[in-house]
Amino acid sequence: MKHITHIREFASLPFRGGWRGCVLFFLLLFSSCINEDLSKCPAPCADLTIRYVIQHVDSLDAGFASEIRSVHAGFWASDGLLYEEYILGEDELPDDMSFEVTLPADDYGHIVTANCERNDGRHRLFDDDIQTVSFEQPYMGSDTIEAMSRAAYLGTLGIDLNNRERTLYEVPLRPMVSKLELTVHYAEELTNIRCYIGEATKAGWMCWAGTAIDNERLVTDATRMATDVADSTKLYAFYAFPTVVDPPVPVTMLGAKPRATEEAGEWKLFFLSDYMDGDEQKTVQHTFTIEKNPLRVGEVFRGEFTINTTSGEYHDVETGIEVNPDWNPGHGTDVEL
Hints:
The protein is mainly beta.
């Protein structure tokens, strides 16, 4: 168990958190507790234990990563404003994923995200308003984000610290992303193969409400996730936002309502490759339209593809395929950054 006594300090943020927050709270309001007028006295502090547990629902695929490497947690008081926030890296996480936290007695909305650091290793700080806290990838271009290398999880919970009989709170963590494992066999003349998905994937989550953020133009770039597994064969293994919505976790405090599951819709997978046509370098675009295999949170989409300069094949599955052997940005789907 790890005892949390403070949050990270930033010059632009007021200091909040832990027993120091309680002490400061008492000191600031002590002058109001005089002449037997107790109406303005601060509430007493309470100790609680938070334990984070990955919820292994039926839809969680065995190939979906379940290790937790970072935790970003926040507590919003009954007014919906952020009171405390802490970020812990892999070396700071206890084996039992249990944490002791000290807070003034109040109703709290609690949000925790796991494995949500960006590619530079940093976390975006939570918003002060619980209703506007979101998990999104930074944009690389106007409508392009990079695929994720880790499985991102979300947990939410309502906590009533006025109830002194309960001190242990277990927070189930559910995935916010899907995993893709794409095996691509390509002709020897193809080079610089780029991989993208888009035209239906969500753009992120509003954490407290459990609703997805839509962007019909969003494209996810998975090019960096490629590994060579054989001659003329690459494996793209990565995480991306889903194409259909199952709420990550139901929440009941502060007016949040979970969103109903959406109907499955088609999405597209793009491969762009360079090749030489005589003395001229050209780019060929392969567009696979996936119709009956939506990306769902906690599930793994596995596909095997073969591409060359004039055709493409998605093995064992009927799907739409378009091949443009002379692709240029702005012609068809523009997925270049």
